[in-house]
Amino acid sequence: MHGAATGEPEGVLTRASERYAPDAKDTDRIPATLLALVRNEEVDDMVQSMNDLERTWNHKFNYPWTFFNDKPFTEEFKRKTSAATKAKCNYELIPDEHWQAPSWIDPQIFDESAKVLEENGVQYASKMSYHQMCRWNSGVFYKHPALRDTRYYWRVEPNVHFFCDVDYDVFRYMHDNNKTYGFTINLYDDPKTLPTLWPETVKFLAEHPDYMHQNSALKWLTDDTRRPESNRKAQGYSTCHFWSNFEVADMEFWRSKPYEDYFEHLDRAGGFFYERWGDAPVHSIALGLFEDASKIHWYVPLSLSLPASFS
Length: 311
Fold this sequence. Notes:
The protein is an alpha/beta fold. Helix content is 39%, strand content 12%. It is built from 14 helices and nine strands.
């Protein structure tokens, strides 16, 4: 399917040209990357995702790929992934201080909390690496030196599919139309994974009332009519969130003082480890509170399902 057939967004659209050739000196590409957190053993699944996205979009625009791993990438991983694109590939090691649990996290409390969460049916509760991943995706990845000069990213997971041809530069669309965050689908989270995330957020807002945007999406975050039980169990949060396995975002928002202060508050509260706060609800709550709702964009041509109302 072509982008035009499925409906392109309104606004300024930049089409493919010779200025997007892989070796173009005077390029129309902006500081952006396709970004993946991936393990060596997921190489074939990663190549599957790359093949889809290269076929539908990136062979026209040749944006670089940046791969992150908490272990060094193997030569096999580098060989297979670099063969899937004409664009530049960057292979980055996550430093220990970005990946390990912070010093204030008590391993004993983590173990005890994980047992309780597992008894309540929370997946991956005892898997330390899952908690580390959620924290890294929430507030650490954009601090990596490899992204210092990069502003936008498109997150790509291993073994995902892209079905629609997209004929415009997605990153330029974000930049030229003043968009902060792009998503394809909204889901409801399991309230058992984040019972104190909203109370901690309310506590943070009480300390920083000036951070709330006048055109925030607070009603969306606190909706209690669609799933009243989820809202009750999450202590006032609807649990509706952008499914961050697909996200296109401007890292200037994550690097802003409101978001950095918010992440620091959540990090100190310990819920990334003692509960199972995911990067999707954390990103969604921050965007819903601190950003102008008009700067959040639903990528209709790339989506497979309608999101919940964002109003």
